[in-house]
Amino acid sequence: MTNLTESTKNLNGFHYFALGWRLITRPGLKRFVILPLLANIIILGSAFWWLYGQIGEMVNWMMEKVPDWLQWLSYVIWPLSVIFILLVFTYFFSTIANIIASPFNGLLAEKLEGQITGINPPDTGLLGITKDIPRILKREIIKVVYYLPRAIVLLLLYFVPVVGQTIAPILWFIFGAWMMAIQYNDFPFDNHKVSFANMKSTLKKDKWNNLQFGMVINIFTMIPILNLVIMPVAICGATAMWCDRYRHQHVQAGQW
Q: Where are the alpha helices (DSSP H) in the chain?
């Protein structure tokens, strides 16, 4: 396991994110890291190149929605609007990248878990992996269906005077952190066919640590260059968290 000298109670979400940066350099993981990395570079790189050219106009449009009597708060509302736009685009394009790279992300989580636990996953071969792709993509769609209604409510909240311009970006950040935790924890859970509902229930019982994990992913995803490598790092961190904190709840000892 990854917590050789500490109790899992002392290992929070920040720890597992930092651990992810070290784990991606492990021997034997390179080929599993490269494919998710390429997907992220192409999709997130292109999206943020376009976004940084448009964000000024988007913020100005949002500021026009602020009532005149709140203009004196523009020094607060303007940065919150920037954060709001970045969070919306970050999750949207991260989701697209994860859907495209989901089979490779699952392989990365599986390979790392085998290294951490010393228990090798069953070798299903290329045919087995190919047969599993529809199920993996269906799981990604389930996550999108979970996300969309909540995202729409938060988007509508932004247009409520006062509350929308001040509270909505903060709620978006918290919600985005939760969704990032779900997104990346889902790969090791799904490798063991743990249902989406059961995974959510498990993560909610450890919600603060998962929010920490998701928050730092959110922040790094908004930073140019670093956001291009965040996907494999987050998968490795989430897999380590699964092995330390959740695996024993869903898998019998000594079994894959």
A: 13-23, 30-64, 74-117, 125-157, 163-166, 168-191, 196-204, 207-221, 230-241, 247-250
d(CA 49, CA 17): 25
CA distance 64 to 179: 29
43 contacts: CB under 8 Å, gap ≥ 6: 93, 96, 97, 100
Q: Write out pLDDT tens, residues 115-147.
A: 999 998 876 655 566 777 788 788 888 988 998
Provide the b/e sequence for 63-75 (b: ≥16 CB within 10 Å): eeebeeeeeeeee
Residue type, 158: Y
Query: At which residue do the structure tokens 């996953």 appear?
Result: 121
Question: Which two three-digit tokens encode residue 251?
Answer: 């898998």
pLDDT tens digits along 40-86: 778 777 777 777 777 777 767 766 766 666 665 666 666 776 777 77
Contacts of 241 (CB under 8 A, 6+ apart): 13, 16, 185, 209, 213
Task: Please report the sign of the dihedral spanned by the C-alpha atoms of residue 122, residue 124, residue 130, residue 131.
Answer: negative
Q: For residues 47 and 221, is the Cβ–Cβ distance under 8 A?
A: no
Angle of helix 168-191 relative to helix 196-204, nearest 10 degrees, comes to 120
Q: What pLDDT digit, counting tens, does each position of 145-172 carry?
A: 998 899 888 888 877 776 776 787 888 8
Is the entire prediction scored with pTM above 0.90? Answer: no
